[in-house]
Amino acid sequence: MISKKYDLLTLGRSSIDLYSANVGSPFEKISAFNAFVGGCPLNIATGAQRLGVKTAILTGIGNDQVGNFIKHFLDQEGIDTQWVPTIDGTRSSAVVLGIEPPDKFPLVYYRENCADINLNIDQVAAIPFADFKAAAFSGTAFSKDPSRTAMFYALELAKKNGVTTLLDIDFRADQWDDPRSFGITLRAALSNFKIVVGTEEEILATFLTDKEQLLIKHQQISAPEIRGNIDNAIQEIMRSGVETLVVKRGKEGASIFQPGKDEVKVPGFPVEVLNVLGAGDAFCAGFSYGLLNDWDLFKSVRMGNACGAMIVTREGCANFMPTHQEVMAFVETRGGF
Fold first, then answer.
1. Is the pLDDT of residue 292 over 80?
2. Cα–Cα nearest to 276, from 310, 323, 322
3. In the chain, what are the domain boundaries?
4. 23 and 104 in contact (C-beta within 8 Å)?
């Protein structure tokens, strides 16, 4: 990629994350919480910055102590926050999480009138998109206006300025007024993205009907039927004009899809899971690092897999993102890229 002032801009959610200090305890028996920061774009920005990517973020914070907490963290990490507005009349977002490995992580969002969903067109217009190589968007930022319209405008400006656009699907069902709104909105945005990243569940949610979603939730559709639905959804994404789709598959690694090419499977790094939250964001940070350093797709996805594997062994998200040195050491002990 050509030289620019910044490597990566991330756009959307930020929050204070209150994670259970009693790992393994049922949610109702938690006696203490640890305070971290989170939100998909904030996590990606932190992970990328720690890997050596020059990063800025567009998110909103309220005129409150939680907003100060979030911004202080970002400033300490060296992430450029000059385009982070304090939006009066809103509250900074919060998340509360229980940690019950290996597969229970009850999560509660506090996002009523939250600052980042009140990002507007003017705040997007203030960003010099020509100074960025790439921009990473998250699906939740499209869930409500004024943020929804602001994100579509940001896509316009990014494309006009030759910025590589990446979408982390970031499906959070309870952040949408209607489950159908998620797929309708994301499908309208897909053609604006060069790269799309999502889990199998997120890709299914982008295209399935309500009935199919309900059947899958209650495991009433067989594996072959689900496989077929995922394959159909993948093809729909490719037909939208997306150049690269990366399907995250947990411990199995990830798959790369491009028009007219066979699926490329990229192996993961098996580890013992402590907390799955943040794995996808760590993946995007590592993947973005590879792309921005002109690595090929396979190696870039492998880097994403390594970062995701490391973060699931740790307690939280942004605060625990690995450094470049840590990732290289991790990969070297497991056979390299």
1. yes
2. 310
3. 6-332
4. no
Q: What is each CA distance from 2 to 40, 136, 197, in whole angstroms?
A: 26, 18, 23
pLDDT value of position 230: 87
Collapsed DSSP state (helix, strand, coil) of residue 64: coil
Torsion of the alpha carbons at 69, 72, 73 and 77, rounded to the nearest 10: 180
Q: Is the dihedral angle over the CA atoms 239, 285, 183, 140 positive or is it negative?
A: negative
Judge whether residue 214 has pLDDT over 50: no
pLDDT in tens, 192-207: 999 999 999 899 889 8
C-alpha 332/C-alpha 43 separation (Å) is 24
Give the model's confidence band at 218: pLDDT under 50 very low, under 70 low, under 90 confident, else very high.
very low
**pLDDT above 70 as % of the chain:** 93
Q: What are phi and psi of 272, to 5 degrees?
A: -85, 125
Separation of alpha carbons 278 and 273, rounded Å: 12
Parallel, antiparallel or unpaired: strands 195-199 and 244-248: parallel
CB 6 within 8 A of CB 306: no
Identify residue 108 by its one-letter amino acid code: V
Q: Which two tokens stand for residue 190?
A: 């897909």
CATH class of the domain whose range is 6-332: alpha beta
Please tell me the distance from the alpha carbon of residue 223 to that of residue 142, in angstroms, as a whole number: 31
- Give the residue with greater pLDDT, 129 vs 275: 129
**Predicted pLDDT at 122:** 98
- The DSSP call for residue 132 is E
The one-letter amino acid code at 314 reads R
The label of the residue with tokens 């050509």 reads 2
Looking at every residue in the chain, the average pLDDT score rounds to 93
Instruction: Give the dihedral sign, CA 287/104/252/188.
Output: negative
- 3 state DSSP class of 32: coil
